[in-house]
Design goal:
The protein is an alpha/beta fold. The chain is built from 15 helices and 14 strands. Strands 5-4-3-2-1-6-8-7 form an 8-stranded mixed beta sheet, with helices on both faces. α1 crosses α3. The longest helix has 24 residues. The chain is globular.
Length: about 400
């Protein structure tokens, strides 16, 4: 089955093409709407690259250029030759709880819930509409970051606000990174030779979240109504005393949009030390930058607290999983976190932790009570798999 996976941003389109679950090509349309826009495609099978640099005015033109590069590379003659296209959607809201094929009703609901994820959902919608226009005969599927967390019990997803805010306005915890948490936990089960496992998954990138997974199902997660809650992230503040917000509003005379920008784009480790790339933070620490040291310590401390809380929530914990750009590659973060969790039976093998590899692997000491795993996430493969399943059912 030929499946194209699209992850549309406000000024970009990331894509990956699968043929029978094998990656044939991947690429990116970047800086849409600017004069120095660029589209690139890599033929994964022969490592050949195809590029175009020109002003790309909108997503429609960007996808048209992607189609031209597919044809030029010999990988795909036309987008209409696809069996399906899977779209990553950050927020499904209260009604879109399960992955599904696109319909007019689905598009209407996605428009309605875009207010829940204003940085993501409008761009995802652009990608869907562009694909529908470019290849009208192709089935489109929407894969929700929130869907995996649909198994959370009510006492975990409810906020202690007047009940009408949930009943009338759907204010509750939704959780995100569900496609990643679902993928890595299923891979961990295979690695450990079990059907379903109870584990704690830490997806650590510029956006970061932790998920408590009981027998393969999400029972709690750190992100909430939006992706802002929970861990300290690259530019997001994570958990915060709500009373700080009206105080800052009065102190700095900020409106709600400015407050939103402050919390989402100017806070996190970036707000503490001026850097949100953990490689830069590590270099700054080596050079004696104490704010960089503080940012790293704050990030790791918050992460340890969430993992510890979920260790208490789960009746047993088979594994702790690290994934995402930081989780997979930052040896210092993994070491600092695991050292502070040793009393819970998580014993890191320091030599294994330092080894560089892109493969799934265990990095725990042989007598560790809890397995410590690095599972490189592959959200696109998971989206392609789910898209194929949805198309086959219809």
């Amino acid at each position: 089955m030929k499946i194209l996976v699209l992850n549309s941003g406000s000024s970009s389109i990331k894509f990956k093409f699968f043929d029978d679950k094998i990656v044939k090509a991947s690429g990116l349309v970047e800086k849409i709407g600017e004069q120095n826009s660029k589209v690139s495609l890599k033929n994964v099978l022969n490592n050949e690259n195809f590029e175009r640099e020109l002003a790309i005015k909108d997503h429609e033109q960007g996808l048209k250029l992607v189609s031209e590069l597919f044809k030029e590379s010999g990988i795909l003659a036309d987008l209409n030759a696809l069996d399906g296209c899977g779209h990553r959607i950050v927020h499904g809201g209260a009604k879109l709880k399960e992955h599904c094929l696109v319909s007019d009703a689905v598009l209407e609901e996605l428009e309605r819930v875009s207010v829940f994820a204003p940085l993501h959902n409008p761009a995802h919608l652009m990608g869907i509409k562009t694909m529908l226009k470019a290849a009208p005969s192709v089935s489109n599927a929407v894969i929700f970051d929130t869907a995996f967390h649909g198994t959370m019990p009510d006492f975990a997803y409810m906020y202690a606000l007047p009940y009408e805010f949930y009943e009338k306005h759907s204010i509750r915890k939704y959780g995100f990174h569900g496609t990643s948490h679902s993928y890595v936990s299923s891979r961990a089960a295979l690695l450990l030779g079990k059907k379903d496992i109870s584990c704690i998954s830490a997806h650590l990138g510029n956006g970061a979240s932790v998920c408590a997974i009981k027998q393969g199902q999400s029972v709690d997660t750190s992100m909430g109504f939006t992706p802002l809650e929970g861990l300290i992230m690259g530019t997001r503040c994570g958990d915060l005393d709500p009373a700080i917000l009206p105080y800052i509003e009065r102190l700095k005379n900020l409106n709600s949009d400015e407050i939103d920008s402050l919390l989402n784009k100017k806070s996190g480790v970036y707000g503490i030390c001026g850097f949100n790339d953990f490689r830069d933070i590590a270099k700054q620490i080596e050079q004696g930058n104490d704010k960089a040291r503080l940012a790293l310590d704050m990030f790791c401390y918050r992460l340890v607290k969430y993992i510890g809380a979920y260790f208490a929530v789960l009746p047993k914990t088979d594994a702790l999983i690290f994934t995402g750009g930081i989780g997979e590659n930052d040896t210092l973060v993994r070491r600092k976190v695991c050292e502070n969790l040793a009393h819970l039976g998580m014993e890191l093998d320091f030599e294994l932790n330092e080894q560089r590899s892109s493969k799934e692997r265990m990095i725990n000491h042989t007598h560790s009570k809890v397995k410590i795993l690095i599972i490189p996430t592959d959200e696109e493969l998971q989206i392609a798999r789910i898209t194929g399943e949805l198309i086959s059912k219809n």
